[in-house]
Amino acid sequence: MIRLVSAARFAAILAAFAAAPALAQDSPASSVPPELQGMIGDWNLEQEDVALPKCAITFTEDQAIGGWAAVIPEPCPAPYPVAAALAAWNVDPEDGSVLLLDAERHVTLRLFEDEDGLYDTDPAVVPRFYLTVPYDEDGAGGEADAD
Question: Taking every annotated instance into account, which residue ranges of this chain make up the domain Alkaline proteinase inhibitor/ Outer membrane lipoprotein Omp19 (predicted)?
Fold first, then answer.
């Protein structure tokens, strides 16, 4: 009897493992192209004066009008755009700039990649914003390492 129960348990475990790939295939694949997967996650919008407040923003892989949803966890102080104006993110295929869009596909911010690999708004536009990686508690982050 013990051997029969053990064999039945083993068969159930084996069946669960066999079903795992089929279950994994049922989950939807990300609609974010592989070359943009590194953009998914937490970012900060900052101003040139780092003493000024930052604006936290999360780029998700959830589809939204104009691209993928951008989430603003808490309201950002002026002069940052209001959360409704930062509803989605995308990348312009023509010039590689990061686009932050409102819910009607209007471009709120266009951030261009500079020579350091960072993204910032046009220097002629004031105030100027920078898209940075948040700093960890240990001080790591802020810039993408070239390693």
Answer: 37-121
